[in-house]
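Q: A reviewer asked whether we had any structural model of the full assembly, not just the individual parts. We don't, so I'm hoping you can provide one. Inputs are below.
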Amino acid sequence: MKFTKDHEWVEITGNEAFVGITAYAAEALGDVVFVEIPDVGKTLKKGDSFAVVESVKAASDVYAPVSGEVIEANTDLSGAPETINAVPEAGGWIAKIKLSDVSELDALMDRAAYEDYLSTL
Amino acid sequence: MNAESPKMNTVGRPSAPELAVETTSFKSLLGGRGLLQSEKLIFEKDDYSRTGVDFADIEIDAADLDGLLRDDLSLPGLTEPEAMRHYVRLSQKNHAIDLALYPLGSCTMKHNPRLNEKMARLPGLGDIHPLQPVSTVQGALALIDSLSHWLKTLTGMPAVAVTPKAGAHGELCGLLAIKAAHEAKGQGHRRTVLVPTSAHGTNPATAAFVGYTVKEVAQTADGRVDVADLASKLGPDVAAIMVTNPNTCGLFERDVVEIARLTHEAGAYFYCDGANFNAIVGRVRPGDLGVDAMHINLHKTFSTPHGGGGPGAGPVVLSEALAPYAPKPWVVAGGAGFQMLEHDEASSSANFGRMCAFHGQMGMFIRALTYMLSHGADGLKQVAEDAVLNANYIKASLQDVMSVPFPDGPCMHEALFDDRWLEGTDVTTLDFAKAMIDEGFHPMTMYFPLVVHGAMLIEPTETESKDELDGFIAVLCALAGAAKAGDVARFKGAPYLAPAKRLDETRAARAPRLSYS
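A: Here is a predicted structure for the entire assembly that you could use as a starting point for your response.
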């Protein structure tokens, strides 16, 4: 699993990846009450806002950690947004993306590097 | 009177309480509370057979209504006293500026002078209708013209659109004027609006509503717009920047002239969110700072009732460059008196259309102009000075008890605290705010601006006396002491004494019930 400074995670299998927000982000947002998931087929550029996670405190954009096409979106989140709080780095995934440039993964952090980064915040 | 039995008077009526009951554990039998009855929803009082009005029978040809005639409308039926009591009881459960200091940061909950109300009720102003012949409402049009004159004078701007009906509506008006101006110059390809991270949420929302893409501008460590970051983001794709000044951290953007210069150099316009104009009115003219458009919340700076007490009003002042795109209608003075220009053919203007059906919030125009004229130039200057003085008194009185994110220098009209001082107490900003309700005060603005963790934004306004401020400060000091002393239950269960207890905000958002059925 790889991570971004904007607190997204990427779980890669071949050239496809599940993406979601990290446990740190879910904790910081508080109780999630609504998730706007992306449309399947949408083409994303790294850094594009592709989903919105809304908590009692705030609505936050989720930025694409990698470029590619959305091939699946987690429709379960519409009925059960609390999944993001319960299992942010597993069942709380937001979208599955088909990567257009696998080399972008090199710029992401591994868990140790992400945890180091968190300790600086 | 017999000093031996002070409780008894001659008719045998006890005049002092004989039994002390713990008020926190005492419960009335059917939910009443000290002369306040438990109040049902108005639809729960529904009885169509009761009515407070005796309507004459009207003859309707059902055919004319195309099947819309129905007799199953679910309207509550109440007698006049029932209807009156319902709303008075609800008002007793609520908080109002007429009850106490109302420290909601960024909202400017100042006293609404009663002189404003007296003027708004004058029959020649209060009883007129927007569709009356223009010749019969010359006084009202003269009033709009006079208000426009003073808004332009106070802001140093050449034009004003008075019709927008609230702050965010004013933002929409300003951005539509900016869009029209860009399109007229062949610059319609500019699609980006820059917004600082500390902005009011309405700023990015308005930009998105107009169809722009929003990009955030970073903030410096001392709570201002990061000019270097702004400069790096300005470019040929940028249509406008939206900056609040003083900003939502309660700080004056000291680089505002440079921000305007850079923005104009890049071919973009400078929209200023004027929500905090009350901190600088009479002291600073936004036109002198390089602002192209700014809304003025009449309901904040100019004391008209809001927050449930009345509608907003958000006139927008415009620079020379944007003035031709101002929305219709507007008032012009001519030989035959005042006219309301309503139609495109009436002028050569490139107006972008209209913001609302008529001419804006007339009732608020009357109150705002009354406030301006009754204060005068010196009075309005003192409004800004006292607003800033009061906020700094709060900041200075509480900064050793609570923590201040931007401690350097004075603040403007609002004092911003964060939640570092609550660390280790298990009390959150939300808990602290709820406990304020038990002590008789409306909470301050919480968790805004978003750039400060656990933010508590306190705006006392200029209308509070030192006594009122001292009472408020004493409550916050006492609560802070309780939080630090580990009295967590006082906070976690708060409010204990309000008509409604702590709400489950998560459940309300996840499973909202949006209608009564």
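A: Points you may want to mention in the reply: The radius of gyration of chain B is 27 Å. The first strand of chain B starts at residue 159 and ends at 161.
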